[in-house]
């Protein structure tokens, strides 16, 4: 079947009609472009000799063609590839008066051809495979048998150098590497003349497929190894060359080294890097030489058991040069498994600058304050003051400040650490992220509005995504947004580290309790018991353990949890009972005591909360709420005080807690008017979105952080001043403003400010 484009069709029609007589025309194009199809179309044209594959003619045959041109009335159409170009052919082509240019099929031509051929193939797929080369489109439409047969003939005719070049291009060799093969200059011209290469010099997919099917695997591998050796000699990238060799069983020093180098290039894809390190070992590289990096790659995929096995082999090998780094990987893996104390020991043994910082976090989290403070003084940066070094150091300092200083100080330090780490977060295996640690501090101090954007940015970075999503779910749960919490919990996935699984179980327990799903709570309690046994208590697990404590009281299982809560109290005592962390445990303990109807125990927790009230507004709020709970338990319900405390709890992000306080007070008062008021308060606190979503008259919702930014912008503060006030960067403020402008459809800054003023007035 012949299909010509419109310009070619017009020229052919003029030749056949004699309008262009005598015609002296050349058709020079690579293989597959349709030269033979044009000549077939011209068959029978009067007074015209048709010559195909002129590049293959002998000098004698070309001389005979040239003699025909001596007759000025004789017509000639001669077709040839651009290469080879013998001098006799050049002489013939030089005497012609025109050239017909053949082009690849466009989308319309391809669609038409396939329709005529009766082949229901996807046009875009055919174009992607063939580059629109007409001959390849025809072969693809003809089926695999015809396609392979045609390429087999072409490859059988190709010279050794041309085949070597084609295999090198198929292997992904760049121009410099191709040049390093030292092939004759004419080889590239010969390969281009086949039509196998696209305009960018890359092999067309249909041709690459033919090479893989027709050239024996051992020959392709031999050529690939040759390229790899040259690339290693010139310190060039090898990932694209090495990747297809994974699993082939190829061994040897060169390929083992190449696998190792390629694994380093694949650092952004830890699963691929892990496979390459494994291939390097199988090819002959000693495990001790790559074990640490292999363990780190495996750990970043979430396989902490394998990572620990590999890192342990390195630590135990006296001749391993990177034992300290291996210990650091093991320490990080253990932190993810919830073994914070053992993790800190490995970090201390590693004794690198980063490891010492991680050890400070682990020691603080496991209640060993004196050791942490001492070690922080030794955590000076060994090397250059990079972003990573600064971020890790700030994270350690922020965690220590959460115990020894004001919560706002610690939160500010951890936020700066998270922002510093963002550009380089994919370069190191973290035992925990500054964003997660900052979010925990924020949650323990009633600053969920600060934690939320911090976690959202961490999720977008792609590092420790399940960890950050689970903390976002926790924020939603505290606000009473069960649907949002469930969605975030589901997004975290099922393949969780033991630490993340603990939080996931804690969320399921909390959601079941808040929805009064006693049957569901009993079902999830089985997992909660397992999580409690598997995961030691540390400072950063008080949220899930607090949920377990309240649920245990509801289910009559408090004795089962008692030893773990005793460990938590001992841990807090070792840290000097810092209000930030201790208050969370006393708040959950208060609720457990209320459910268990233990007024004396509840009073003890309330007293502890009162002692911490001076730590900040949040702590004062929960201390007042605790006193209200005591009064409610004693049958004394001051409706005004309860409503104020409930609304204050709602204001600091404890929305469900506020509604529950109002509801419980309502059912315990004998004053009908107070009961109605408190029930109405409980319904309002449960039913409205709260401060986190202010409804604009136009239907646009602003997040809590956007509302804060809007209020401060309307008040006349600069981006820098707003950033300082909210513990975020000026660039982040600018990002919030740009997003609000887009969502509100404001055409100018003036329009945006007008919209924001209206929103702030509605919210107030």
From TrEMBL:
Domain HTH luxR-type: 695-760
Keyword Isomerase: no
Pfam families on file: GerE
Domain of life: Bacteria
PROSITE patterns, per database record: HTH_LUXR_1, HTH_LUXR_2
Keywords, ordered alphabetically: DNA-binding, Transcription, Transcription regulation
Protein name, entry field: Helix-turn-helix transcriptional regulator
Organism for this UniProt entry: Amycolatopsis tucumanensis
Lineage of source species: Bacteria, Bacillati, Actinomycetota, Actinomycetes, Pseudonocardiales
